[in-house]
Amino acid sequence: MTATAIPEKSHSRAAQRMRLYRERRRRGLRCISVEIFEREIDELIRRGLLQPEQRRDKNSILKAVHAVFEQALAPRG
Question: Could you tell me which residues come within 8 angstroms of residue 68 by beta carbon, excluding any fewer than 6 positions away?
């Protein structure tokens, strides 16, 4: 007797997006698009939140913007 693999259920791209959307909501996250000026990227670099060679890397810019939010919105105590 041979074991046959049962193929995993295939999910559509729309179903995958909805699953990720719901997971983000459960974690308290919201996904938004933000336009950023080159001068703002320059300021992130000046503040040491972004390396000059990362100025075109969207993930690095996102991390730097998150750092700004954390600094600006940190609880004051």
Answer: 44, 49
Low-confidence ranges of the chain (pLDDT < 70): 1-10
Q: How far apart are CA 70 and CA 24, in angstroms?
A: 19
d(CA 74, CA 77): 9
> Which pLDDT score, from 0 to 100, does residue 71 have?
93
Rounded Cα gap, residues 6 and 44, in angstroms: 50
Report the distance separating Cα 40 and Cα 32, nearest Å: 18
| 8, two tokens | 């995993």
pTM for the model? 0.69
pLDDT of residue 7: 59
Please report the beta strands in 11-76, taking only residues with DSSP state E, as ranges in sequence order.
Answer: none
